[in-house]
Amino acid sequence: MITSRLRTLRDHIRWAVSRFHEEDLFFGHGTDNAWDEARQLVLGAVHLPWEIADSYLDCRLEVDEIALLQRLIMRRVDERIPTPYLLGEAWFCGMSFIVDDRVLIPRSPIAELIENRFAPWLPDEPARILDLCTGSGCIGIACADVFPDAEVVLADLSYEALEVANKNIERHGVDTRVYTVQGDGFDGLPGQRFDLIVSNPPYVDAEDFADMPDEYQHEPELALACGSDGLNLVRRMLSQAADHLTDKGLLIVEVGNSQVHVQALYPEVDFAWLDFLRGGHGVFMLTAAQCRDHQALFETRV
Ligand SMILES: C[S@@+](CC[C@H](N)C(=O)[O-])C[C@H]1O[C@@H](n2cnc3c(N)ncnc32)[C@H](O)[C@@H]1O
């Protein structure tokens, strides 16, 4: 028997915001404030789109919907579970992806580059694309969406993450030209070359990892931490990228706050650090020629 006085969608959004503020939650998995997070959780839980007209917020809920919403809101507060894990869904490049705690919640600023089809940097339509460290598959599957003739490989060390990526391949109906490969870095891709390699690898340094809010503890550590400077994997990727790019290929890698470590480690290299209109930082681009020219240097600093 429901004794709560909350009845409508709007009541539940207001109540969630009050609880979120009271408990000082952290917002970093798709929203950046309590109002947007509450709207996402409440509407998502009852299978309504985020952009419905506000007049629908005054619709009354069924008893079982009220029980569900109150349970989810309290789990968000008490257990600090990010909303996309509670809903089993995250949005990236306007596309819906299945997520659970086997994969990072999609949020990379690389979405903006994909939406712009990597203009003005990509010289030609890419025939083969690699999403290295794919997690849910969001980057590679969104690339497949904007480049409908491209073959796309989704690679990850984690078999569990690839199970989720495979579900997302199925969800988006791209299994004829998007497939997964398990391996450590480039190890599962001997001799394979790509016109575009995009990667959001684990790159959080030890200091940032120790300071991360509770919400991040629900994400796989393998997806976040990567040694004291966060660059254990990126150093290896740089040393091998030239062997996996076509002549005019591009390498695009997100390193977030570890940009400072990349700049300190390779002062000789002219990385192009990309700008984002919707926010985000620490994404570099190198051409295949730069990867070749600096390969010997990259190999000495692995
Ligand atoms: C930051 S998450 C990125 C996930 C996804 N690309 C996104 O943007 O949401 C990094 C991913 O790299 C994978 N990973 C970690 N170490 C790896 C390695 N040595 N080789 C390949 N993948 C690795 C993790 O399993 C995780 O799925």
Give the secondary structure arrangement, pairings included.
Layout: H1 9-22, H2 34-45, H3 63-78, H4 83-87, E1 89-92, E2 95-98, H5 110-115, E3 128-132, H6 138-146, E4 151-156, H7 159-171, E5 178-182, E6 194-199, H8 206-210, H9 232-240, E7 245-254, H10 259-265, E8 272-273, E9 283-287, H11 288-293, H12 295-300
Parallel strand pairs: 3-4, 3-6, 4-5, 6-7
Antiparallel strand pairs: 1-2, 7-9, 8-9
The chain binds S-adenosylmethionine.
The site of S-adenosylmethionine has 22 residues, from helix 6.
- Compute the separation of the termini in Å: 62 Å
What structural class results from the helix and strand content?
alpha/beta
The fourth-level CATH homologous superfamily of the largest domain is Vaccinia Virus protein VP39
Number of contiguous helices: 12
Pfam families: MTS (PF05175)
GO molecular function: nucleic acid binding; protein-glutamine N-methyltransferase activity
Keywords: Methyltransferase, S-adenosyl-L-methionine, Transferase
GO biological process, one term: methylation
